[in-house]
Structures are given as structure tokens and as C-alpha cells.
Amino acid sequence: MTLYLWCWIALCTVTALPFGIAALCGWAPQRTRRRSSQACTRVRGLSLLILYVAAMLHPVLRLSEASPEDADFLLSAPVPALIFLALGLQGGAGLHDWFSRRQAARPH
């Protein structure tokens, strides 16, 4: 079980952390930069970092010396709240892009 937890930490750190930091700094592929604003790219980067924190809570608490009951109690509230916060940020950024494209396409 410990090997699985360490692999999960390594996989999430290698994938989510660099992309989240890059998006938070404003970097995005050319296709994404054409379709969304700089602020939306940064909000998506923040959302990815929040998902990274939510993904790290479980293995870190399991690898610590906390009892499994205490770890389950500590994970019951923050993990779903962080996931819903990240999904709300993603949805808000998507709505902002959608409304801004719709506003730009509308003739005045």
C-alpha cells in the first residue's frame, strides 16, 4: 500500500504541479491563448493547484503516523470542498469565456 501512495504522489506531482504553475503564471498553448483570456488561464491554473492539494491530502495523511480513523475523519470535509471549489472555478472560467465570445460575436 505504501508503494501505491508514493507512486500516486509522484504521478500527481509530475503531471498536475508543473501544468498548474505554468497556467498560473499565464503560460498556455497557442490554441488555448486564442480561445480564452489571460485571467481565465490563471484561474484554471489555480483550479489545477487546488485539485493537486486535494489529491495530495489522502496519501500524505495515510503515510503519516495518524490512525486510519483519524485520517478518514480529517478527509471527510476538506477533500470534497476542495474538489467542488476547483470545479466551480473551472465552470466560472468557462462561463466567462463563453459570454465573452458571445459578446464579441454580437453586432452592436
Question: In this structure, how is the largest beta sheet organized?
Answer: none
- Name the helix and strand elements from N-terminus to C-terminus, one letter apiece: HHHHH
Structural class: mainly alpha
| Count of runs of 4 or more consecutive helical residues | 5
Distance between the termini: 61 Å
Helix % is over 70%
Molecular structure report:
By secondary structure, this protein is mostly helical. The chain has a domain at about 45-60 and about 75-100. The protein is built from 5 helices and no strands. It has helices at about 1-25, 30-35, 40-65, 70-75, 80-105. Helix 1 runs antiparallel to helix 3 (about 40-65). The termini are far apart. The model has no long low-confidence stretch (mean pLDDT about 90). Keywords: Membrane, Transmembrane, Transmembrane helix.
Summarize the structure.
Keywords: Membrane, Transmembrane, Transmembrane helix. By secondary structure, the protein is mainly α.
From the structure above, extract its key features.
108 residues; single chain; elongated; 0% strand; mainly alpha; 5 helices
Topology:
Blueprint (H helix, E strand, L loop, with lengths): L1 H23 L5 H6 L2 H26 L4 H8 L2 H28 L3
Helix pairs in contact: 1-3, 3-5
Keywords: Membrane, Transmembrane, Transmembrane helix
